[in-house]
């Protein structure tokens, strides 16, 4: 059984510094796909990198941070005081209370896919969600319908198994991760109904920044593949597919200037942190490359799913 691992660099386009780091990880052979933010200071530069390299182009759909790509007179999707998205937690809170107009979500998704095509010259190979907003219960069907209408077949299903047992994760983050995974498990059926595919397994929630070490990566990657293989065996799918796929989410880069970068007003602590360099170093290490060879794992891009 072949094992195909897709290592995705999130937040491509966030800044020039982030772009440089993603390109470095790509040139090291550690990253094959990158998810582009469209409303950041490094967006245009990142688009040009896609056009001049074999880095697989994906859209990082953003409904939570910065200014929207679509019309400026959204009534519910943005904060009325400053015209920017409401944030990771506030948007989810208002979605839970049915306070966000679904037509505005549809409009913004369509506008972002259209702009991506204008910048890159083609549709994204895949679309995932910034801060995983694409699979909130009140977004998932709108999102899946949009991908279906634009003939985009691939997304991310951010379900990391045994998440609660990973005691190295900051306990402040864990409730968000657990709740999100519960929601995604519920909304997965929607993706299936619209014919939107994802990898057989996913990991990387637990290894962002300094939480990423070679030992932890090896543990969670093997865990993800073995779980996928067991599920395939239980459903007797080996005759249909002779390989399994896993996506590893990552955030490589260089620290962004705190005064300029990101969503134009400067970078947050996550973007400024040298944790971004740490991820490049771990992902590019000889230890990880040897691990892949020893465990029959081949690094590929999302293109393997786009058929």
Characteristic key phrases:
10 helices, alpha/beta, 7-stranded parallel sheet, 307 residues, 40% helix, single chain
Task: Describe the structure in your own words.
Strands 1, 2, 3, 4, 5, 6 and 7 form a 7-stranded parallel β-sheet that branches. The relative contact order is 0.19. The protein has 10 helices and 7 strands. The chain has helices at 16-27, 43-52, 88-96, 102-120, 140-149, 174-193, 214-234, 269-272, 275-283, 286-294; strands at residues 2-12, 33-36, 56-61, 126-129, 201-203, 243-250, 297-300. Helix content is 40%, strand content 13%. The two termini are 20 Å apart. With 307 residues, the protein is of the alpha/beta class. α1 (16-27) packs parallel to α9 (275-283).
Dominant shape: globular
What is the number of strand segments? 7
Mean pLDDT: 94
Helix content: 40-55%
| Assembly state (oligomeric) | single chain
Give me the Rg, rounded: 18 Å
| Beta-strand content | 5-15%
Q: By helix and strand content, what is the structural category?
A: alpha/beta
- Element pattern in H and E: EHEHEHHEHHEHEHHHE
Alpha plus pi helix count: 10
Regions with pLDDT < 50 over 5+ consecutive residues?
none
GO molecular function: deacetylase activity; hydrolase activity; metal ion binding
Family: Belongs to the YdjC deacetylase family.
GO biological process, one term: carbohydrate metabolic process
Protein name: Carbohydrate deacetylase
Q: How do you describe this structure in short?
A:
This protein has 10 helices and 7 strands.
List the helices and strands and how they pair.
Blueprint lengths: L1 E11 L3 H12 L5 E4 L6 H10 L3 E6 L26 H9 L5 H19 L5 E4 L10 H10 L24 H20 L7 E3 L10 H21 L8 E8 L18 H4 L2 H9 L2 H9 L2 E4 L7
Parallel strand pairs: 1-2, 1-6, 1-7, 2-3, 3-4, 5-6
Helix pairs in contact: 1-9
């Amino acid at each position: 059984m072949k094992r195909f691992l897709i290592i995705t660099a999130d937040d491509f386009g966030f800044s020039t510094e982030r772009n440089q780091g993603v390109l470095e990880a790509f040139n090291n052979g550690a990253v094959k796909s990158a998810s582009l933010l469209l409303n950041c200071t490094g967006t245009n530069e990142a688009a040009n990198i896609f056009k001049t390299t074999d880095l697989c182009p994906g859209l990082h759909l953003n409904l939570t941070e910065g200014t929207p790509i679509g019309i400026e007179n959204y009534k519910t999707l943005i904060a009325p005081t400053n015209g920017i998205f409401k944030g990771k937690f506030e948007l989810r809170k208002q979605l839970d209370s049915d306070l966000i107009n679904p037509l505005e979500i549809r409009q913004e998704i369509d506008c972002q896919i259209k702009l991506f095509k204008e910048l890159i010259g083609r549709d994204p190979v895949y679309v995932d969600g910034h801060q995983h907003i694409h699979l909130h219960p009140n977004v998932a069907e709108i999102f899946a319908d949009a991908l279906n209408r634009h003939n985009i077949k691939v997304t991310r299903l951010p379900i990391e198994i045994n998440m609660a047992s990973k005691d190295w994760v900051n306990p402040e983050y864990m409730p968000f991760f657990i709740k999100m995974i519960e929601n995604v498990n519920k909304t997965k059926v929607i993706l299936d109904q619209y014919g939107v595919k994802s990898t057989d397994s996913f990991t990387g929630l637990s290894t962002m920044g300094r939480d990423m070490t070679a030992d932890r990566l090896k543990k969670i990657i093997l865990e993800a593949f073995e779980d996928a293989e067991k599920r395939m065996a239980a459903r007797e799918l080996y005759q249909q597919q002779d390989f399994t796929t896993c996506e590893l989410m990552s955030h490589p880069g260089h620290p962004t200037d705190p005064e300029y970068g990101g969503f134009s007003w400067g970078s947050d602590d996550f973007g400024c942190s040298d944790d971004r360099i740490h991820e490049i170093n771990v992902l590019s290490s000889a230890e990880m490359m040897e691990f892949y060879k020893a465990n029959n794992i081949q690094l590929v891009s999302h293109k393997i799913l786009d058929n």
